[in-house]
Design a protein that fits this description.
Length: 363
Amino acid sequence: MKKRNSYKFYSLLLIFCLAIGGITYSCGPSGGGGKNGTPPPPVAYWNNNTPKVNGDSAYAFVKKQVDFGPRVPNSEAHVKCGDYFLEQFKAYGWKVEAQSFKAKRYDDVELDSRNIIASYKAPNATRTILLAAHWDARFVADKDSTDTKKPIDGANDGASGVAVLMELARTVSQAKVKPTVNIDIVLFDSEDQGYPNFIKEQTKQDTWCLGSQYWAKNNDTNYWYGILLDMVGAKGAKFYKEGYSVRTAKGVVNDLWQVAAKIGTNGYFIGLNSPEIVDDHVYVNKIKSVPMADIIEFDPNDPATYFAKYHHTHKDNIDIIDKETLKAVGQTVLQYVYNTFGSQEQADAFQKAAQEKAKPAAK
Ligand code: 1BN
Ligand code: ZN
């Protein structure tokens, strides 16, 4: 009888804990680890103190970038927008630096490029995570039927991912409860300057993602995991589990999609796989062995072209951007970041405190 009662008590306690979401233990991650046998990342505990991301603010960050004009390397808009990023991250209290380099385009044109690196340091953290997006805009509209040789606004392809990361930096800077893990936000340059599809003979390899290739070869931080955001702002966007991310960062992908299911953003995060794509995460993973998930829009109606109709056309402008999509992606990523602890000791202390809080008061 006594045994049955205690069984009942612990069952009730477990239900209580799950209900308040205080110490939810979720799936063990299974994606590959970083260099030196670093364990793969967890969504080990649910952090209820995650601050709220603001969709209006994220939208304003997209608009600001688009208003500079197409951020094509070697243009004035590109220089001014890069300077704006440096100022803005600094204003949010993040340490920021520009990694300048000359990237060689497929036709040997030299592109004056800058990767922007903003860092948040958490007290006593031994782990660092990487959040990234590309900030350059495509120099041609090679999938459009008109003005093919003019650059695109890149409101979604470029500005949206950056805007979500800026909104995360702003949110963290104003939050009472801070992340416990170190965060590097890296804005890669010269991602979108690869071969235009009107060039028939394409003999060179690796003409895309020039900024991430340079950064990965010149960076010695050991990241626990990474998340890449690309085309994350269009109205009605759907994010499928991208094939390369699934193959090399399975745990990160599955945990992110689980977070989405729990916070109700799963209308955007679809639990189905999409084909592999070459994006910045591939170079970060191949060169630095960082398991990195790419959150990128996929159009299931057109799997042959992968992307939505506006891709690399002049339709990729502010009119297709939706603050709800930006907010859904930002909140999902921020919850995942807040569930990530800066050290095992911090994770254990968090779990212990949550258990104490969940204990029924002693008589
Ligand atoms: C993603 C967005 N990419 C460019 N804009 C990377 C890419 C390059 C995807 C070539 C497909 C082909
Ligand atoms: Zn692109």
